[in-house]
Amino acid sequence: MRQYSPDLTPPWKKPTSVPEVPAEPGLVVEEPGTGFCGAVIRCEAGTVTLEDRFGKHRVFPLEPRGFLLEGRVVTLVRPAAGPARPARTASGSVAVPGARARVARAGRIYVEGRHDAELVEKVWGDDLRIEGVVVEYLEGVDDLPSIVADFAPGPDARLGVLVDHLVPGSKEWRIAQAVTSEHALVVGHPYIDIWEAVKPSSLGIESWPRVPHGQDWKKGVCRALGWPPDNTGAVWQAILKRVGSYKDLEPELLGRVEELIDFVTDSGGA
């Protein structure tokens, strides 16, 4: 009598037809044998380097059916070399080789906190230096009316402000309404914190978790995702490292930052 031998081959190793996907930088995949999930940062002959949400790097061989992309088995392949394209900044603008930073304008862009400022600098920093726009942070919006009054916006010194969680009826919304004028523009995104403006897929997570009202949002997120809740600063730096360009950010933030840059650099604020 023939003895039954179970097939213990993992599903991702079985010889089925799977798509080939170029290992482009920023592509988030999982190596199922180890469970390591990360974004492609380098692809060389025969290997691919991934970086997880905490900045840890792992090198894996480019084996057939070796990775999972959005839960589906794929074969990563080395990207084909294409024709040279114009270099672009992280914001998607065409880069200007050798461009020197412009002398700072009188106009400014204010953002709500240090994390906001670091994210804007990482994605739009090259553009802002060419335009001569300085970004500063407020550490909250409660003092915004007095800051705007001291700044005294005018035709030659426009002021743009980016506010977190700017939804109708909120405290932030009422403050924004009070200080908005011809030369002062306050815009915002709907997210509780700037962290949420980073696409979950760029971090290898399905979605940003919901945190019960009354709890510290950053610490609640860290606890839900298994990140260290007592060092949100280090977690943010790990998140920021995963942002390579505008493609890693939600459109609701992209549009607002571009709007502020256009406002401050308009001919009225030159």
UniProtKB/TrEMBL annotation:
InterPro entries: DUF3097_C, DUF3097_N. Residues 20-79, 108-265 form the DUF3097 domain. This is DUF3097 domain-containing protein. The lineage of its organism: Bacteria, Bacillati, Actinomycetota, Actinomycetes, Kitasatosporales. Residues 1-26 are annotated as: Disordered. It comes from Streptomyces nigra. It comes from the Bacteria.
